[in-house]
Design goal:
This protein has 181 residues and is of the alpha+beta class. It has eight helices and seven strands, in the order αββααααβββαββαα.
Length: 181
């Protein structure tokens, strides 16, 4: 009965991970090589399971990021701290790039030894593009546009403030915004 219960539990877990389509759920070995891959990973990154198993996860980063040593630094942080989260550009099989939110978590045995790493990636390209468009509009608008905090100070302001009022950005941000209204 215990074996049957365990088998059913493992099957539910497998089905749950395999059916997630909006997140790439990838298991890495402690050195960063792919050992398992869900349907979401195939859809987001473009690799079939048989193409990616055994490959190092650094292949998902742009060349300049790999050369900077970022993937290896992530592995070290996860091994030391147990978790890492970051956003940045990633590379699909076809070479196209997408903006990703990545959460990486260490998987440890009962003695604390590192068994592997779970890497969950979500494609946030559309959100990133919308933010860039908003920022571009914010920067080119001739209207005075700003974001102020509850403390009464500017958190962000567009160039129209400097051009219209003649104050520098540091001068504007040094005083509560109400002084300029």
């Amino acid at each position: 009965h215990a074996e049957d219960t365990l088998r059913q539990s493992e099957e539910r877990l497998r089905l749950m991970i395999e059916t997630v389509k909006d997140y790439a759920i990838i298991m890495l070995d402690p050195e960063g090589r792919v050992v398992s891959w869900n349907e979401g990973a195939r859809r987001i990154k473009g690799y079939a399971t048989n193409e990616i198993i055994g490959q190092h996860f650094s292949r998902f980063y742009p060349d300049e990021i790999v050369r900077s040593g970022f993937p290896e630094k992530v592995l070290k942080r996860v091994a030391a701290k147990g978790r890492d989260e970051n956003e940045g550009w990633r590379v699909r099989k076809d070479g196209s790039q997408f903006w990703a939110n990545v959460v990486i978590t260490a998987v440890r045995n009962r003695d604390g030894g590192l068994l592997g790493i779970v890497k969950m990636t979500r494609d946030l390209t559309e959100r990133k593009r919308a933010e860039e468009e908003r920022d571009r509009f914010f920067d080119v608008s001739r209207d005075l546009m700003c974001i102020a905090g509850f403390d009464g100070y500017f958190k962000a302001l567009n160039p129209a403030w400097e051009e219209t009022l003649g104050f520098s950005r540091p001068e504007l941000q040094a005083k509560p915004f109400i002084e300029f209204v």
